[in-house]
Amino acid sequence: MKTMDAPETARLVDETLKTLATLAGLDLKVLRQSYAPGKCTAAEIFAHLAFVDAVFLYRFLKAVAEDGSVIVPFDENLWQKELEAATQPVAVSLATIVAAHTMLHHLVGTLPAARLARVAQHPERGPMSALRLAGITAGHALHHARQIEAIRDGRSWSKAEAVSYYE
Fold first, then answer.
1. DSSP letters spanning 90-138
2. Pairing mode, if any, of strands 126-129 and 119-122?
3. How far is CA 136 from CA 50, 64, 119, in A?
4. CA gap 46, 91 in Å, rounded
5. Deepest in the core among 22, 26, 92, 99, taking most CB within 10 A?
6. What percent of the chain is modeled with pLDDT above 90?
7. What is residue 162's predicted lDDT score, i.e. its pLDDT?
8. Residue 167: pLDDT band by 50, 70, 90 thresholds?
9. pLDDT grade, residue 164 (50/70/90)?
10. Among 124, 128, 123, 118, which Cα is nearest to 56's?
11. Contact 28, 66 (CB under 8 A)
């Protein structure tokens, strides 16, 4: 994903949220399907997004408020298991996603550029600006929205369709 300015990032956050909100309205039968054997169902993808968006929002807030803060990694697969993603209702997941994206959209659209340029240190990926963290959040959500769209369309999803969001 290319480097984006604040208006582009805010627009992507908003567009991704709208896409996810629409997809959350899919029939329960569809939400219980995956795009390939052994892969997450659409409902489990929504739970994953809720967990990760909450973490990514925290990272963004910490970077803005505490320039030079350290990002603490987490094991998303462990969270998926221990937080029982398979049993989480899509409505609960969507509520978290909506809250995180709404706040990101607001802050990216209103905070001064100097605050959005503040940096957090990721132990594996190096320095990341708050604005970049917001873009990563939106890109990650878009990446998984494409998987849910594949499920909706009754087709498999391949890595060739992946959205590159960390670059």
1. HHHHHHHHHHHHHHHHHHHHHS-HHHHT-EEEETTTEEEEHHHHHHHHH
2. antiparallel
3. 14, 15, 14
4. 9
5. 26
6. 90
7. 76
8. low
9. confident
10. 128
11. no
> 17 burial class (0-12, 13-18, 19+ CB within 10 angstroms)?
buried
Q: What is the pLDDT of residues 67-91, one digit of tens each?
A: 999 999 999 999 999 999 999 999 9
Closest by CA to 66, choosing from 149, 130, 146, 133, is 130
Q: What is the pTM of this model?
A: 0.94
Domain positions in the chain are 6-161
